[in-house]
Design the sequence.
């Protein structure tokens, strides 16, 4: 059954890659709801939410490497900021996996639904993008950056996302240029995914209710299928971004995501 569904996971990877590249979304907001649906149809009600979140993080490892390389080549990646945030991110993301393990599956699903609604509202308003230009940066010291990174890592790991919806607004609040904020966010997605993924593997290692093909809470058939499709399709989506009405599509997806979020939050 696991191998028979690989084409479904590949299709999900195509969808997440295209949407992520075209609309600037993190793949997690597409992958987690998609996996929840597939797992529900398969009858994997036990630990379904933990499997979806952990598997999403595993796929983000692949996509983050390509994003980091692209931003580094463009010279927009400020590594000192990444390093100062990453100390807290690793701790927060690792802890987030164990918090997710502690939560019941239905409760984690409901929390993801609430988070999806908040992301949809952010996408529709995009108020955090309207930062006046020309103002000097006000980047805080290392302790504050590490604390912020801890919060970003924890929430991102808990919901299986790369952290862009949290890191970019925080960087904007520090008056970091948008191009650099996006680059820093992309780089921070890698430690989020790595630390969160390792945490979920350890947390679910001895769980007897996981399906065959699981490495802890990471469901390998889904992770491989999504990963091999999402990475190249993200580049295709990025190319389409210049030819499609991205703002309109983003609002449409935000409405769909809001509906999905409400449905998950209500259980």
Sequence:
């Amino acid at each position: 059954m696991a191998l028979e569904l690989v084409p479904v996971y590949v299709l999900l990877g195509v969808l997440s890659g295209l949407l992520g590249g075209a609309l600037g979304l993190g793949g997690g907001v597409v992958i987690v709801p998609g996996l929840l649906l597939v797992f529900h149809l398969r009858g994997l009600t036990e630990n379904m939410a933990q499997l979806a979140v952990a598997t999403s993080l595993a796929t983000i490892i692949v996509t983050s490497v390509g994003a980091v390389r692209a931003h580094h080549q463009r010279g927009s990646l400020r590594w000192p900021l990444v390093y100062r945030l990453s100390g807290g991110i690793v701790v927060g993301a690792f802890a987030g996996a164990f918090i997710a393990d502690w939560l019941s599956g239905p409760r984690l699903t409901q929390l993801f639904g609430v988070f999806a609604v908040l992301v949809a509202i952010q996408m529709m308003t995009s108020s955090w993008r309207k930062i006046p230009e020309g103002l000097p940066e006000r980047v805080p010291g290392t302790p504050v950056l590490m604390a912020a990174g801890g919060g970003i890592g924890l929430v991102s790991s808990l919901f299986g996302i790369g952290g862009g919806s949290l890191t970019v607004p925080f960087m904007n609040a520090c008056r970091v240029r948008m191009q650099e904020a996006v680059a820093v966010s992309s780089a921070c997605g890698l430690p989020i995914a790595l630390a969160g993924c390792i945490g979920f593997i350890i947390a679910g290692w001895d769980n007897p209710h996981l399906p065959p093909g699981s490495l802890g809470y990471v469901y390998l058939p889904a992770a491989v299928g999504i990963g091999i499709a999402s990475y190249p399709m993200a580049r295709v989506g990025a190319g389409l971004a210049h030819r499609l009405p991205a703002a309109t599509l983003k609002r449409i997806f935000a409405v769909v995501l809001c509906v999905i979020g409400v449905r998950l939050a209500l259980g």
